[in-house]
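Narrative of accomplishments. A recurring question from our advisory board has been how the design workflow behaves on a single, concrete structure rather than in aggregate. To address it, we present the structure tokens for one chain from the evaluation set, followed by the sequence designed for it. No filtering or post-editing was applied between the two.
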């Protein structure tokens, strides 16, 4: 990755705007972003398992379904952001390689 590559960070600023990091991907903020992305992906996997258990039981309440929908929506938004960030970095790397 070149020194001018911008990375979509896995968080927003207080106003909800996108945060980007320009650098080579080896600094402290990049490592923090990597850790947060890993946590977000892990949480999404746990939530999927929880959803499957809840739905398989067929004994859910409307409140449980509503909470599950809210949590799944939040997790999906985070996973989408991770995918967009990693896809952009992959494209930048491929361009730098001449692919």
């Amino acid at each position: 990755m070149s020194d001018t590559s911008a990375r979509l960070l896995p968080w927003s600023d207080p106003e909800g705007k996108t945060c980007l990091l320009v650098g080579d991907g080896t600094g402290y903020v990049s490592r923090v972003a990597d850790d947060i992305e890993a946590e977000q992906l892990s949480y999404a996997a746990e939530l999927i398992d929880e959803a499957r258990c809840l739905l398989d039981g067929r004994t859910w309440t409307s409140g449980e379904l509503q909470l599950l929908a809210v949590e799944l929506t939040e997790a999906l938004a985070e996973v989408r952001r991770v995918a967009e960030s990693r896809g952009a970095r992959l494209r930048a790397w491929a361009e730098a390689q001449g692919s």
